[in-house]
Write a structure and sequence with these properties.
single chain; 210 residues; mainly alpha; 8 helices
């Protein structure tokens, strides 16, 4: 890329960065004022239904998302300006080919050519983001106490059997127990029992078969 084009895109990127910086400043000022106006007057929200604060929460989340989007554009511009200094501006980061001049005119901070950008967007759409599983575990899934696939005798059953001999829990921690004698007996097996038929084990069922 010759010197004239380099200076042209440098000015174009600098102007765009200035506009975005000004926009971010206005968003911060207006966002803080709006958040202050929309914030509930109560000292605590513990006794309110979450839906009562739905509009306020949506407004805050929307403002934050817009600011993140503008900041991302500003980061792309900073990356493009750095490439202009190193002489790698206008090269696709994926295929290493030249990005068309028309695309750079429309989007000076472009990192990929059109074909690579389409492939990148398609892969992001078709590939589910599984990173959340590293943070959130399945609430009703099998954990370290229930790693076996069968339901005959799992880790949680072992824990319940051991707790019959004593634990640091008190009756009030578990609920439904009036004293320790009831808590540390077979009454522990009645947790989760809704009807009497729920107490029938697989072994009892097999023994009564003809």
């Amino acid at each position: 890329m010759d010197a004239d084009k380099t200076n042209h895109f440098k000015e174009k990127l600098a102007d765009e960065a200035e506009k975005i910086t000004e926009t971010l400043g206005l968003m911060r000022e207006n966002g803080e004022a709006k958040m202050s106006g929309d914030s509930p007057e109560e000292l605590s929200n513990y006794d309110n239904h979450p839906a009562d604060l739905g509009s306020e929460l949506y407004s805050v989340e929307m403002n934050m998302a817009l600011k993140v989007h503008e900041q991302s554009k500003l980061n792309d511009i900073a990356r493009a300006l750095s490439k202009l200094e190193t002489g790698s501006y206008g090269k696709c980061e994926s295929c290493k080919g030249d990005i068309p001049y028309e695309r750079l005119e429309a989007l000076p901070s472009a990192r990929y050519c059109i074909s690579c950008e389409k492939e990148k967007e398609a892969s992001e759409i078709n590939t589910p983001d599984m990173s959340y599983k590293e943070v959130f575990d399945a609430p009703f899934g099998r954990k370290y106490l229930n790693k076996r696939e069968d339901d005959e005798f799992e880790g949680l059953d072992q824990l319940n059997d051991l707790m019959k001999y004593g634990a640091a829990d008190t009756p009030q921690d578990m609920g439904g127990y009036e004293d320790y004698e009831e808590f540390y007996t077979n009454e522990l097996d009645n947790q989760g029992i809704v009807e009497e038929v729920d107490k029938i084990s697989n072994q009892q069922y097999k023994e009564q078969l003809p």
